[in-house]
Design goal:
With 662 residues, this protein is an alpha+beta fold. The chain is 56% helix and 10% strand.
Length: 662
C-alpha cells in the first residue's frame, strides 16, 4: 500500500506541483522533513505538520504562481507528504484505534460516495476513456470554454479536499490522548499563527502586494500566509476563542502566548476584510461565554466575571471597527452591507452575489436529487446553469455554502452522510463537555466555540480550495474529542456493523448506477455539446499572422476543430517550422471524428518536407451542410526555447491556415 501511495504521490507531484527551481528549493526540504518525521517519529511529524500548514499557503505567490496557473495548493502537498511518511512508518506502530468512534461510519460512507462519484465524473470528463474514447482529449466542457483537463483537476482536488480532514482526524486523535501532546499542539499552532500575524502586519503596514494575489491587492485585503483573506479570516475567527480557552487553562508561557495571539488577531482582523468570519467570531464569543457560565463546578460570581470578560472581547472588536472605520476595509464592507436596511444595497449585494450561486446549486440538486452533478463538477457546470437559468453572470466560484455544495455535487445521498457526521460530532461534543476534567474545561469551551465559528463560516464559504482551513477544522474536532475521551466511546455491536456493511454496499451500488447513467446520458460531454451548441476544439493556439498577413494557428501533437462543410471539399494549408524539416519530414494525419470521439475515419495524410505552406485537400460530399469535427495528429513537435533559445516554451506541431471550401 505504501509503495502504491508513493507512486501516486510522485505522479501527482509531477502533474500538479510547479517544477519551478526556486520554488522547489524552498518547498522540497519542508516536504522531506515532514515525511521523515512522520515516518520515524509520528508525534513530531504531526507537530511539524501543525506548525507548517498555516505558513506555506501563499508560497507560490512569491514566484508568480497564481490561480491562473493550475497547481496543487501547498497545504495539500504538505499533507500528502505527511500522510505518505505516516504510512511508511506505520508497520509495527501502536497508533491506537479511533475507527471505533461512531463518527467514522458516516465519514467513511461519505468518502466512499465521493470516491464513486469522483471515478464516474472522471470518466465523464475524459469522455469515458478508455472505454468509449481512444485518448483523453482537451474537450470543451462548458460554455465558458473550460477544458477537460481543468474539470479533471477539479474532480481530483475536490476529493482530496474531502479526504484530508477525516484522515488527519484518524491519525492525530490517538496522539492527543496524551495531555502533554495537547499542549505541544497548542504551542505549535499558536507559534505558527503568531508568525502568520507578523507577516500580515508586514502586508498591512509595509507592502500589501507581498505574498498576495492581484485580485485581493485590488480589493485592499490582506491574506497573511494563507490562500486568501477569506481563509485567513476563518482561521482567526476560530483561533481567537481557542486561544482564550488556552489562556484560561494554562499558566506561564502558553498563557501569555495565547493572550498575545488574541490581541494581535483582533488588531489585524479589520484589515482582513472578510465579513463572514466576523459573524463567526461574534457567534464563537457568545458560545464561549455561555459555556463559561454553564460550568457547574465554578461559583456563580466567578462565572459572571469570566463570562463578562469574554463578552467584552466582542465589545473590543466593535470599538476597533469604529476607531478604524475610515481605513479598515472590513468596516467599509460592513457599512456597505448595512446599507441594505436603508435601501442603498440590494439583497444580492448584501450577500456578495451569493444568491446566484445558491440558486444554481439548488437547481443542480433539483435536476439530480440523488447523486448531484458529480464530484468537483459544480464549478464546471455553473456557467451552463447560468445560461439555463437566464442569469447573465460570468464569474465562477464554489457554491459559497457547504451544504449546498455537497448537495449540488453529491446529491441528497452525500448530504445525508454530512448531516449524520455532524450529528455524531455534536453528540460527542456533549459527551466531551460532560466528561472533561474541570481543569481543561475552559480549553474545551474555546475549542467548541471555535467550531461554532466554523459552523457560521461554512454557511458562506466552502473552502474547497483552502486545504489549510479543512486541516484546522478537523484538528479542532480531534481536540474536542480528545479532551473529553477519558471514558472512551462505545463501538457498535458486531451484528450492527455487518448489517450496516451490506446496506452501505447496496447504497453505493445504487448511487453508482444512477450517477453512471446520468454521466453517460444527460451529463455526458456529447449531450452537453449538443444541448449547449458547443463547437468542440482543442490543441490549437491563438490566431497569429505571417508578415504578409496570412492568419494561422499553431497546433500541438494533436488538435481538433469543428467545421461546417459549406461545400463538398475543403483545403487546409499547413506549415511546419521544425529546424530539421528537410532531413526529417513531418507527417500530419487528418481524421473525421466519428460518434463524438468514439472512433475516427482517416481522410488522408500530408507530408511536409520544407518550411513552405503545403495544402491538404479532403472531400466529404456526404457531409455537405453538416458540422464535422476534424482531428489532426502530427508525427512530432518541436520546442523553440529548447531548440533555438527563443523565448517561446510551446511544443509546436504545425501551423494551420484558414480553411477554404471548394
Amino acid at each position: 500500500m505504501t509503495l502504491a501511495a508513493g507512486a501516486a504521490f510522485c505522479l501527482f507531484y509531477v502533474k500538479y506541483v510547479p517544477l519551478v527551481g526556486p520554488f522547489q528549493a524552498i518547498l522540497a526540504p519542508i516536504l522531506l522533513a515532514v515525511f521523515a518525521l512522520a515516518a520515524t517519529r509520528p508525534e513530531w511529524g504531526a507537530l511539524y505538520f501543525v506548525f507548517c500548514f498555516p505558513l506555506i499557503n501563499n508560497l507560490p505567490y512569491f514566484f508568480g504562481i497564481f490561480g491562473d496557473t493550475p497547481h496543487a495548493p501547498t497545504a495539500l502537498v504538505l499533507f500528502l507528504a505527511f500522510l505518505l511518511g505516516w504510512l511508511a512508518g506505520r508497520a509495527g506502530r501502536n497508533s491506537g484505534n479511533p475507527t471505533s468512534h461512531p463518527v467514522v461510519r458516516p465519514l467513511a460512507l461519505f468518502l466512499a460516495v465521493a470516491g464513486v462519484s469522483g471515478i464516474l465524473t472522471f470518466l465523464r470528463f475524459s469522455n469515458f476513456f478508455p472505454f468509449r474514447s481512444r485518448a483523453i482529449y482537451e474537450l470543451i466542457v462548458n460554455v465558458n470554454g473550460v477544458r477537460a483537463g481543468g474539470a479533471l483537476m477539479s474532480d481530483v482536488f475536490t476529493f482530496l479536499n474531502y479526504l484530508i480532514g477525516p484522515v488527519l482526524f484518524v491519525i492525530i486523535l490517538p496522539l492527543l490522548a496524551d495531555p502533554k501532546f495537547v499542549r505541544r499542539v497548542l504551542v505549535a499552532l499558536s507559534s505558527s499563527a503568531l508568525l502568520a500575524l507578523v507577516f500580515s502586519a508586514v502586508q498591512k503596514y509595509h507592502s500589501l502586494s507581498l505574498g498576495n494575489t492581484p485580485f485581493f491587492i485590488r480589493l485592499n485585503q490582506i491574506n497573511a500566509t494563507f490562500k486568501d483573506p477569506n481563509s485567513f479570516g476563518a482561521f482567526l475567527s476560530c483561533l481567537i476563542p481557542v486561544a482564550l480557552g488556552a489562556a484560561l487553562t494554562y499558566r506561564r508561557g502558553l498563557r501569555w502566548l495565547s493572550v498575545l495571539l488574541v490581541a494581535f488577531s483582533l488588531l489585524m482582523f479589520p484589515a482582513v476584510g472578510s465579513r463572514g468570519p466576523l459573524g463567526g467570531l461574534v457567534v464563537s464569543m457568545v458560545v464561549l461565554a455561555l459555556l463559561a457560565v454553564g460550568r457547574r463546578e465554578v461559583p456563580l460570581e466567578k462565572k459572571l466575571i469570566r463570562a463578562a470578560a469574554l463578552l467584552s472581547v466582542v465589545a473590543v472588536l466593535i470599538v476597533l471597527l469604529l476607531v478604524f472605520q475610515s481605513q479598515s476595509i472590513l468596516a467599509k464592507r460592513v457599512g456597505t452591507s448595512l446599507g441594505l436596511f436603508s435601501e442603498a444595497t440590494t439583497p444580492s449585494a448584501f450577500f456578495n452575489w451569493r444568491l446566484v450561486f445558491w440558486k444554481a446549486a439548488v437547481s443542480m440538486t433539483g435536476d439530480y436529487p440523488l447523486t448531484g452533478v458529480g464530484l468537483g463538477a459544480y464549478i464546471i457546470e455553473l456557467p451552463n446553469y447560468f445560461r439555463h437559468l437566464g442569469l447573465h453572470f460570468k464569474a465562477t466560484d464554489s457554491a459559497l455554502n457547504y451544504p449546498l455544495q455537497v448537495a449540488a455535487e453529491l446529491g441528497l445521498v452525500g448530504l445525508l452522510f454530512v448531516v449524520w457526521a455532524a450529528v455524531e460530532i455534536l453528540r460527542q461534543l456533549i459527551r466531551s463537555w460532560r466528561a472533561c476534567p474541570p481543569e481543561r474545561k475552559y480549553l474545551l469551551a474555546g475549542v467548541i466555540a471555535g467550531l461554532g465559528a466554523f459552523a457560521v463560516n461554512l454557511m458562506f464559504q466552502t473552502y474547497i480550495g483552502s486545504f489549510e482551513i479543512k486541516a484546522t477544522l478537523w484538528l479542532l474536532i480531534a481536540l474536542a474529542f480528545a479532551l473529553g475521551a477519558a471514558g472512551g466511546w462505545p463501538a457498535p455491536p458486531e451484528k450492527t456493523r455487518r448489517n450496516s456493511g451490506y446496506l452501505a454496499l447496496a447504497l453505493l451500488l445504487g448511487f453508482g448506477a444512477v450517477h453512471g447513467w446520468n454521466s453517460a446520458h444527460s451529463l455526458s460531454l456529447e449531450r452537453r455539446t449538443a444541448d449547449l451548441v458547443i463547437r468542440q476544439e482543442f490543441g490549437l493556439d491563438r490566431v497569429e499572422q505571417t508578415p504578409d498577413g496570412r492568419e494561422f494557428r499553431w497546433s500541438g501533437k494533436r488538435a481538433a476543430l469543428t467545421l461546417t462543410m459549406a461545400k463538398p471539399t475543403l483545403e487546409m494549408p499547413l506549415l511546419a517550422a521544425h529546424p530539421d524539416i528537410r532531413e526529417n519530414p513531418v507527417r500530419v494525419r487528418v481524421y473525421r471524428v466519428v460518434g463524438f470521439f468514439r472512433g475516427k475515419q482517416l481522410l488522408g495524410e500530408v507530408t511536409i518536407r520544407d518550411s513552405s505552406w503545403t495544402t491538404g485537400r479532403f472531400s466529404l460530399p456526404e457531409e455537405t451542410g453538416h458540422d464535422i469535427i476534424l482531428l489532426l495528429e502530427v508525427s512530432r513537435t518541436w520546442n523553440p526555447l529548447k531548440a533555438l533559445g527563443t523565448p517561446d516554451p510551446r511544443n509546436l506541431g504545425v501551423a494551420v491556415g484558414k480553411i477554404e471550401f471548394l
